[in-house]
Amino acid sequence: MHNEPNPTRSPISKLSFLKMHGLGNDFVIIDSRGRDAQITPALAKAIGDRNRGVGFDQLAEIRTSESADIDLDFWNNDGSRAGACGNATRCVARLMMDETGKDTILIRTERGLLQAERAGTEVSVNMGLPILEWDQVPLAANVDVEHLPLAGDPVAVGMGNPHAVFFVNDITDIDLPTQGATIEHDPLFPERTNVEFAEVRSRSEIRMRVWERGAGITLACGSGACATVVAASLRGLTDKSVRMEVDGGWLALEWRDDGVWMTGPTTLVFAGEFDATFLEQV
Ligand SMILES: N[C@H](CCC[C@H](N)C(=O)O)C(=O)O
Predict the structure, then answer these.
(1) Looking at ligand 1, which residue's alpha carbon is closest to its atom 1?
(2) What is the per-residue pLDDT for 13?
(3) In the structure, what pLDDT confidence band is assigned to residue 33 with cuts at 50, 70 and 90?
(4) Is 21 among the domain residues?
């Protein structure tokens, strides 16, 4: 009997990973440098299952880069791709800083080249300039991004992924699962959307809660925090530099001429290895 490899099966027999989080926004990080991409939608979904896999808000796959320190791809736990993920970018930047000893890391993501820097015990990343053209967010219709024609008068902001930011008087007064899921799937957003609710506490402080496209409620969302400071500043509600309290802690945000900078903590939780029997079932 021949022991031919089964072409329908993943050729991966063991898969090492790291679990990290930034403000409780949690990630599985897989290093695929020097080899072909290993993550498929089915594998992302299986790993992302909190009962049968490990669970994560996003999976980040590190790839060899020709133009930066690394390339980075993001997956949601429903198996869909995300064009941007600020907190995972900060987490992976921390790994690369520890690995190389450098204080500045260049990371190429789907939205372009991002620069991350050591900021004391924290990590800052420039998430790039906000996208405010309706077809680039993207939206399904040519409407005013600063006042979307939806109940609650949200602002649309693209950060390499779509966001709808709602300003509310009282953050405790929102039904996040119901409103989040409804807005995520509103036909105005052809690629669905991440949804942020923001209570402006002062010109320099915002309380924000998030419903993420493809992941649901999370304790923090870096690109969502960036979108929120842009929206608040466009509406004249805050300055361009704010402290933001999310469910998982605090981020510092600053919309500068070269992009939206976000600073916050990163935590390495553990290193693990997916077993061959788990991978074979995917
Ligand atoms: N947690 C991420 C955002 C994930 C966005 C993802 N849910 C999408 O489909 O765009 C962050 O820190 O920016």
Answers:
(1) 221
(2) 76
(3) very high
(4) yes
Residue nearest to atom 4 of ligand 1 (CA): 85
**Pairing between β-strand 205-212 and β-strand 241-246 as defined by DSSP bridges:** parallel
Q: Name the domain count of the chain.
A: 2
89 lines ligand 1 (CB under 6 A): no
Q: Are 122 and 164 within one domain? A: no
Same domain, 217 and 275: no
| Ligand 1 centroid distance, CA of 90 (Å) | 13
| Closest CA relative to residue 91, chosen from 47, 111, 66, 61 | 61
Binding-site sequence positions: 25, 58, 76, 86-87, 161, 194, 212-213, 222-223
Q: Is 48 inside a domain boundary?
A: yes
157 lines ligand 1 (CB under 6 A): no
Nearest to 240 by CA among 259, 224, 218: 259
Residues 233 and 270 in one domain: no
CA distance 79 to 95: 24
Parent domain of 239: 155-263
As annotated, the active-site residues are 85, 221
pLDDT tens digits for range 197-237? 999 999 999 999 999 999 999 999 999 999 999 999 999 99
**175 plus 235 within the same structural domain:** yes
- pLDDT, tens digit, for every residue of 139-183? 999 999 999 999 999 999 999 999 999 999 999 999 999 999 999
pLDDT at 71 over 90: yes
> From CA 192, how far away is CA 214, in angstroms rounded?
9
Q: Rounded mean pLDDT of the chain?
A: 95
- Read out DSSP for 101-129? --SEEEEEETTEEEEEEEETTEEEEE--P
ipTM of the complex in this document? 0.98
271 and 205 in a common domain:
no
134: in domain: no
Q: Please indicate, yes or no, if residue 99 is contained in any of the structural domains.
A: yes
Distance 144 CA to ligand 1 centre (A): 23
| CATH code of 62's domain | 3.10.310.10
